[in-house]
Amino acid sequence: MIDLYVYYKVRSQDASRLAPLVRAMQERVAAHDGVRGQLKRRPEEKDGVQTWMEIYPGVDDGFADLLARAASEAGFEGLIDGPRRAEIFTDLPPCA
After folding, report:
1. Is 94 inside a domain boundary?
2. What is the pLDDT of residue 77?
3. Domain of 15?
4. Which of 5, 13, 53, 59 has CB 3.0 to 4.6 Å from 63, enough for a Cys bridge?
5. Residue 96 falls within a domain, yes or no?
6. Which residues contact 35 (CB under 8 A, 6 or more apart)?
């Protein structure tokens, strides 16, 4: 299992239009795959741009591809400033 973190930039003027689209996509993913995502943002803005992050803990290796397809179908075009970047993290093994 992995934890998937997806981050991207959002112009502040587009945030109110994008948030319901992201949440709707996360609800569709949860209904289809049982994975509940979290949506977060950095508290500060810089030059009218926010950084948002979606967090999906404890997913399988193929989930990133599924999420990328869901995002491409969700209507985010023009509301995200730049690419969505995905990072994968795993648990550290316990010390012996």
Report:
1. no
2. 87
3. 2-89
4. 59
5. no
6. 29, 56, 59, 63
Query: What does the pLDDT profile of the chain (96 residues) look like in tens digits?
Result: 999 999 999 999 999 999 999 999 999 999 998 999 999 999 999 999 999 999 999 999 899 999 999 999 999 989 999 999 999 999 998 886
| Count of structural domains, the chain | 1
Q: Note the Cα 39 to chain centre separation in Å.
A: 7
Q: Are 3 and 36 in contact (CB under 8 A)?
A: no
Give CA–CA dist 10/58, Å, rounded. Answer: 26
Three-class SS state of 77:
coil
- For residue 32, give every residue at least 6 positions away whose Cβ sits within 8 Å of its Cβ, in sequence order, or none: none
**37 contacts 2 by C-beta, under 8 angstroms:** no
pTM: 0.91
Angstrom distance (rounded) from CA 5 to CA 57: 8
Q: Phi first, then psi: what are they for 37, rounded to 5°?
A: -90, 160
